[in-house]
Amino acid sequence: MGKVILEVKNLKTKYITRFHEDVYSVDGVSLKIEEGKSLGIAGESGCGKSTLALSMMGYYFPPLHYTSGDIIIDGVNISGMDPDKVRTTILGSEIAYIPQAAMNALNPTMKIIRFIEDVIHAHDKSVPKAEIRKMAESYFREVGLPPEVLDRHAVELSGGMKQRTVIAVSTILNPKVLIADEPSSALDVTSQKMVIKMMKDLMKNGHIRAMMFITHELPLLYNVTDDIAVMYAGQLVEYGSAKEMVFDPIHPYSHGLMGSILVPEEGTRGANLTAIPGTPPNLKKPPIGCRFAERCKYAKPECFYTAPAEKMFGENNTRMYRCLMSEEELREVYANEQ
Q1: Residue pLDDT, tens place only, 78-92
Q2: How far apart are CA 178 and CA 73, in angstroms?
Q3: In this structure, are residues 64 and 11 in contact, taking their beta carbons and an 8 Å threshold?
Q4: If DSSP codes are grouped into helix, strand and coil, which group holds residue 20?
Q5: Most buried one in 29, 30, 236, 247, CB count within 10 A?
């Protein structure tokens, strides 16, 4: 096992609505990312993927609030840290975040160089603008962007160029961890390939040391990430290598999720597409038992009142799933369906 760059331990965060109701969108999540590795987060809309990404930054804005748990970046626990300290010492330099709809994250009235100045001056106000420009031009060339982009406004850039520019601005300080939330959405195939290549090159060239990649496109996760974690109703329900998760999912939700997509790989061609009935539970009042029980066709009576714990399995116990049924029981019911 390599060096762990990012570790999350039993993280719980919640949204507080204007009616003072708690919505636990991240409820007891634990994960690790090793140096040089990338982790994909999969799951349907509303399962808590983006909230997990925001929560891992350690920088909270209402209505999102930290409840408990640890976020450890290269041995430093940032959970509960003063927000100003997180902003000036952690964000950008230790961990960086590419939000959903990143193409719209650039202020249309500002030139790109201004964004880089803001990022660097948030950490050190004494750096001269001339030095920042020199650094930015060198970095943009290295990541495959023409330095002329620095003097342009966002409206002068194509969608793919804007996305790559946001990634470059976010990683200008060589953060240890990059969290990318749907970085290739709303792009054409050519632009997607360029964005993915850029992110892989950032890892290869040492500008980032680990990456978390969130997307609805599961085939993309298979080709981009080393491991995949499946999230459902605020919890991780299964974790394993990308190959294991696509070709051998064990949790009923993961099994249904992988069965609902087309992956043009050997072993999946010709397979029938399946659908998962029902809707996710209301996280204002999550079920006391398994959160997937209402939608699970294999659910037993005890599933509705007993919350399943995480179970480790696989070679060297490197895989995890959260279900009351044993691995053998699940494999048997899947085999009987074929």
Answers
A1: 998 888 899 889 999
A2: 11
A3: no
A4: coil
A5: 236
